[in-house]
Each structure stands twice: as structure tokens, then as C-alpha cells.
Amino acid sequence: MRRTLLYALGGLLLAGVIHIAIIFLVPYFATRDAWSAIAKLGAEGEFHILPLGDSGPDTLPALDPRLLHAVCRFSIADNPIRIQAQLPSDFWSIAIFDRRGRNLYSLNDRSAERTQLDLAILTPVQMAQMREDPPASLEQAVVIELPVQAGFAVLRVLVADDSMLPAATRALQGANCAATL
Amino acid sequence: MRFLFELAFTILIATTIGFATAWYAVDRGVVFGTVTVGAWKAWPLEGSANADPYSLAMLARSGEIPLGGGEGIAFTATTDSRGNPLSGHCTYAVDGQTPPARLWTLTAYDALGHLMPNAAGRTGFLSREILRRPDGDFVITLAGDVAPGNWLPIAPVDRFKLVLRLYDTPLTTGSQLAGVTMPRIIAGACS
After folding, report:
1. Residue B113 and residue A36: Cβ atoms within 8 Å?
2. Buried/exposed A141-158: b ≥16 CB within 10 Å, e otherwise
């Protein structure tokens, strides 16, 4: 009897290990995660505008229907990138995620203090190199250092009413996520 | 022989309990760092680099992208203020105030996270569109049929959820969020 209990206890401990392993592994094996959904939308290095609201398969679940979203997969493994956009004067925000959906950085129009978005993303190594010889073009940019090779950016623009949609769409169409420093 | 039996017993316990608890935690959203205010729940860590493994597993499974801390915070309600599940066969009044934010939106989704199509073409409210009482409070009526005032149509589904998103809000940490005033969700007549 005592022996059986001991085995049961061992089973419970092992169950804990399995539980933890599954939780940690889910993001690595998920096939319907945001990264996979965004990869289906098109090439890396350009913004893809998601339809307003949710209509059909070419979008992400549970987005706010009052905001227009654009997503871009990027890689900074070889070179740093710069995200640039001329946005409307109403609310907008940008969030940077790593490949597993972890939010690494976010910014809204008020903290950016202007309607022009200019965000440079560098790896720590690129940052160290850049500090030795900072290019003058970066003076106006928000420079962030991210410890990742790849990730995705989500740009959200408020569409207060239908008349704002063309301006919001134009702003997102003009957004660039593969500019150089 | 007995050893083999016991080993099989151990492995059976381990895999069953391990998988079941992991599934339960990810599927039901039993996550550390949940902030509950009445019927509303928020996961402020979801939008930070310190997101816990449970939040990341949930996000990976749902494919949703959370709001970053610098963008805002989302509150989700799946029940009314008495704790009964939200049903598309009932009417509800979302009554009260929202925490401070530059703007907010209230959206109703079905159980799978899709918008509910309706003839009015209205899927959510923006704070600026809301008709308010003189004291600044508001009532949003959730109903299948046309209602006066702030009417948010819902489809006759068994379960739905409400998401209140606060954009550009000073509230970002869990302790700040726990003390806020959220609107109540009061159930009305059911058909």
C-alpha cells in the first residue's frame, strides 16, 4: 500500500513537470498564433492592412472594430529597421511583439507627441555599433533596442466614423516598416 | 511484473493530470495576474515584456494580439454583475462610468471572438458617441431588438462577451486597475 502511494506521489510530481513543459511549449507549437496568421497575409517587411471589423480568414481574431489595424513582420537579424508613417492627428498606437507574441514595446500618439511615427529597431549589437557613429538621420527617431531577431509590429489607427476611413487607410498604406537607418 | 504495473500507473497519473491541468489553465484563462473588477477581468501583464508563460500560451492558442501597456488596457466580461453568463437571448444594461482614459470602445463578440453581424451595422461603441446623463454616467442597452438611447445590438447566441478597451489610460499596473470603477452589467428580461 505504502509502495503504491509512493508511486502515486511520483506520478503527481511528474504531472507537475508535464504541466509546466506543456505551458512553456504551447507558443512553440501553436499553428493558429498571431505570427502564423500574419505570415499568411504576405511578405515580410511590409505593412498589411487588416479589414475593418472581422470579415473572413485574412484577419486576426477579436480586433477592435473601431480601429484600423496594419501588421508587419520584420527581421533585424542582418540590419536594423526603421518604421515610418505619417498618421492622422487622432488616436493611433504601435506595438512591437516578438515571434511568440510577447509585447516588447508600445507607444501611442500622445507619448510620441506628433503625428509622424519614426521608430528605429536595433539589436543590442547593432545598438553598440550605432553608438560609436550615430547617423544624423536618427535625431528625430525613437530608437529602441530589442533582444530579438524577428518580430512583428501592429499599427492601430482610430476610425472615429466612416468618413475617417479613407484617411486612415491612406496613412496605413503609406506606412513603411523596412526603411533603413 | 509488479514494478511494470506500478510504473504504468505512475505514468498514467502523470500524463492525465499534467495534460488536464495544462489544458484547463490555458483554455479557461486561469492566469496569474488577472485583475477582477466586478464582472470585468483584465490581464495587464499580457501587454508587457513580463508576460507570464500562461498568458503567452493563451495568446498563442487564440491568435489574439493584446494591447501593449503604452496603448491601453482591455477589460473582458463573460458574465453579468451577478455572475450569470451573458446570453444573447437576454437584454442587458451597461450602466455607470469607465476609468479615466482618452477614449474607450465597448464591443460585443460571440463566444469564439467574432463580431456578431446585425442589420444596424453597429458592432461597438466609441466613448465619443455615447449619450450621457447630466452627471456623466451612461447606459448602454444590449438587446436583440431596437432600443432607445445607446443601443448595442447582439445576436441570439447562447454566450457572448463584452470587451471594454481603454486607450491611452494612466492605469497600467494591476494594483491601479484593481481599484477602478467599472460600469455594472445588469440583466433585464430574457426570452
Report:
1. no
2. bbbebbebeebbbbbbbb
CA–CA distances in Å: residue B85 to residues A55, A102, B22, B43, B97: 26, 30, 24, 20, 22
Give the end-to-end CA distance of chain A in Å, rounded to a whole number.
Answer: 70
Residue appearing with cell numbers 458617441: B129
Q: How close is the nearest chain B Cα to the Cα of A133, in Å?
A: 29
Q: pLDDT tens for residues A78-128?
A: 999 999 999 998 999 999 999 988 999 999 998 887 788 999 999 999 999
Per residue in B47-56, pLDDT (tens digit) is 888 888 888 8
Q: B52, B151 in Cβ contact below 8 A?
A: no
Beta bridge partners of B115: B109
The residues spanned by each domain of chain B are: 1-30, 33-190
Residue in chain B nearest A111 by alpha carbon: B70
Would you state the CATH architecture of domain B33-190? Answer: Sandwich (2.60)
Please name the helix (run of DSSP H) or strand (run of DSSP E) that holds residue B134, with its range, or none: none
Note whether residue A47 is domain-resident.
yes
**Continuous H helices in A30-156:** 34-39, 109-112, 124-132
